[in-house]
Amino acid sequence: MPPASANNSDGYDIAFRLLMGVLAVVVPLSHLAWLSGNITACLTGHAWASYQPTTALLHPDQLWPKAGETSLLIGARVIPVTVLLALVATAGLLWARHKNNGGGRKKKITGMAKLKDIEPLMAEAITDKARSLRPSLKTAKHIDARDTGILLGNLQGTRHEVRMGYEDVAVAIMAPRSGKTTSLAIPSILNAPGPVLLTSNKAAGDAYTATLDARAAVGRVWSMDPQQIAHAAREMWWNPLADAKTLDGAGRLAGHFLAASVDASQQGDFWSKAGSNILSQLFLAAALDERPITDVMQWLAFPADRTPLDILRDHDFTAVAAQLKGTVEGPPETRDGIYETARQYAAALLNSEIAAWITPQEDIPEFRPAEFVTSTDTLYLLSKDGGGGASALIAACADSVMRAATAQAERAGGRLDPPMLAILDEAANVCKISDLPDLYSHLGSRGIIPITILQSYRQGQKVWGDAGMDAMWSAATVKVIGSGIDDPDFADKLSRLIGDHDVETTSTSTSESGKSTSVSMRQERILPADEIRALPKGTALVFATGMRAAMLDLRPWYLEPGADELAAASARASKAITARAITKHAPSQADFGSAA
């Protein structure tokens, strides 16, 4: 049986809580009765009573003796009680919503970056950095925010913009419908001060249609659409062999066909390497003789054709010619296997519709990367998922543009001004540049700003291997993590990167002498893996080099000023794509005649 002192203590606690509960109801109710009663009295032509809330609640007839009973009932009883109940209900609803939508999270994300922790990404610092990076801004009195860096979002719960500078390189890992296009790709393209490169596997209702008109207003728009995703007319052609007149350039081009066809784990086997080598040798021969790339398919069909051997020898590539000759004259089984592998890698070149985009066209302008990187033009590179050789051409073109930008930056003193933005959306599907992780180490310093957008970390590992993806992750100075991270290992890795913080724990115990309270500190994850997985749409984590991880509120383009005009332009572009698709696939009169 508990001692009498414990029972008395419990009784006092209950009495105190009961008293506080009564006061919590009576005090606001009496003030509401006095205020509502006075308002009612004034409306009915009576005088305003002095401040006596208790009297107003208990004896309203003493404050307003000339008011009628009905007026007193409504003004000093019904209205105060109704208002109080409404306030309590509203407070309860807001509290429930707060708890359900992450009200408990405020405690858990204590330790995330505050303004001072990410000061280098804030307006003043990012503007000063832009002046030092871009000679054209050094003497400018006012610099637009778009010229200082790429908007990532607002620091959560504030209006302070967080931007990555024009020397940063970024990797964004965001699941579908988590804001990667609406909050990252599209706003970045719309506000880019220089040339823009976008790779994508979608057209209608995506970054292509949302930015097409806006970018056409600042420069020329180039669209490479070999698989007719946008069903656009062919208004350009590009020569992939322009950079293949050296063994290194031809090897890079062949590497794009290899990467588009097999995963990183399979690129080291004999057949893959041998097939890639044959392609590079034939690409080199075609480039040296200024032939169209489609001639390579003829040489692959007839290994005995000595034309590529003669071209290589005539241009003093005797060692390469000897290698090619050794393969051609080797054991038939091995030779046929190598050539068949190469044919599969380059099979897209057999498609006349695809080949038309990469072979000379007399009445269509040629896209020249060296000219593009000094303009304010936009290049849209579109390819379907699993496009094979077609996606190889997309990767090759993107690679060619970034290499041309690097060369131009070196000629301009080290950096492009204005910088070039390269949005590599769906990079793991349509833009598999094998050495992209290595390029990340120097692109930012050249004023070339890549943002590689992936759906998951494992997707990157599949394309570039574990070492390659780790290298890209480490080289990225800005990492954006959106909602939809379902990989438990990656979520735990992020949780560990965010770190721990001290949490105060209060414990209460009861003994014969009464209650005692103790306070202790323990370490707890700032953001556990399950909280990272449950990030709500519209938010993102940002990891910047040398700074605490920050939680951002994303800024989708359709909530920004001018969104209505952009939405209308996007709708028009999407409608045009639909109309072109209907026209293209509509049965002709000849079809009806043959069916009859």
Question: What does this molecule look like?
Answer:
By secondary structure, this protein is of the alpha/beta class. 51% of the residues lie in helices and 14% in strands. The strands form two sheets. It has an eleven-stranded mixed sheet, with helices on both faces. The chain has a two-stranded antiparallel sheet with strand order 10-11. Among the domains are: 4-103, no CATH class; 240-353. It contains 24 helices and 13 strands. The N and C termini lie far apart (100 Å). Mean pLDDT is 87; it is low at 1-6 and 101-108. The chain is elongated.
Supply the key terms:
membrane, 51% helix, transmembrane helix, single chain, two-stranded antiparallel sheet, 24 helices, T4SS-coupling_protein, alpha/beta, eleven-stranded mixed β-sheet, transmembrane, TraD/TraG TraM recognition site domain-containing protein
For the largest beta sheet, what order do the strands appear in spatially?
2-1-13-12-9-3-8-7-4-6-5
* Number of helices, where a helix is a run of at least 4 consecutive DSSP H or I residues: 24
Outline:
elongated
* N→C terminal distance: 100 Å
Oligomer: single chain
Main sheet specs: 11 strands, mixed
Describe the structure concisely for a colleague.
Residues 419-537 form the TraD/TraG TraM recognition site domain. This protein is α/β, with parallel strands linked by helices. It is built from 24 helices and 13 strands.
